[in-house]
Write a structure and sequence with these properties.
The protein is mostly helical. It is built from twelve helices and no strands. α1 (4-15) runs antiparallel to α2. It starts with a helix and ends with a helix.
Length: 284
Amino acid sequence: MIDNADLYEGVKFMEEKQYAKAIVSLDDIAHKKGECFEIYELQGMCYYHMEDWRNAVRTLATAISYLESPQPNLYQFKGLANLYLGEFSFSVHDLFLALRYTPVETLSGEADLLSNIFFACVLAGDERAHKIFDLGYSHCPERMMDNIQQLFDSFFVKMNVPQDEKIAMQEQINQLKEQAEADQKVIEKMTAARGEKLTALIDNLKNLKIAKKPENPLNYEARDKIKELVGAEEEKPEEQGEETTAEIPVPREEKKEAPKPKERKTGKEAADDFIKKIKNRGKK
C-alpha cells in the first residue's frame, strides 16, 4: 500500500521542476510497493511538462484505467498531449470527455477547457467548434478569447507552424475577436432594452387604477326581511368574507288593475241623466 510519505520525494522533485528525477523516484516506489493510480498520474504530468507528448498520452491513459470515477483534468491533459502530437481527432475525443465529466455548476470557471476544445475542433475540422465557442463565450468572454490566443501562440511555437500560416491564422483570430465583441454589444443592448420594457411594465402595473366593485348596501338582515316579503327560499351564505354569486331578491310591486274605461252614453241617455239630476236637486 502506497501512502503520501512514499510519494514525497517524487512530488518534491516535481515542485522543483526536476521532472526526470521525479519519474525515476516514482518508478522505484512502483517496483518496491507495486503500481498504482497515483504513480501513473504523477508520471503522466511529468511527461506532459517535459513535452514528451507520446509518453504523456500513454501514461495518463494507464492512470485513467485505474480510476473508479472519472477525473476531468486527466482527460484534458491527455487531450492536449494528443493535440501537440497532431492527433486532432483523439484530442477532441479526450477533451469532450473532460467536458462531460465537468460539473455544470463549475463550467463558468472552465474557460481553459472550452478554449482547448474549440481549438482542437478547429484543427480537426469538427463542426462543433462554433457551438463550443458560443458556450465558452457566453460564460466567460474575455478569458475565452485570451486562452484561445495563448493556445494558438503556444501551438505555433511547439509545432513550428510556417510564418505565412501563422499570419493568416492570427488574422482569423482577430476577426473572431471583433465579431465576438460586436455580438456582445448587441446582447448587452438587447438586455438593456428588455430591462427598460420590463421597468415600464412594472411602473404601469403600479399606477394602474383598478375599479373596485361597489359594495352591496344590503346586509344579511335586510336580505332576510326581503325573503319574508317575497317568500324566497334562498339560503344565507356563510360569513367567511367570501363573495356570493346568488342574486339578491327584490320585492315585487303588485300590479294594480287599470280602471276600465267608462262606457260612453248615447245622447238621449245623457239628456235623461241630466234631467234626473235637476229634478232630484229640487227635491232636496
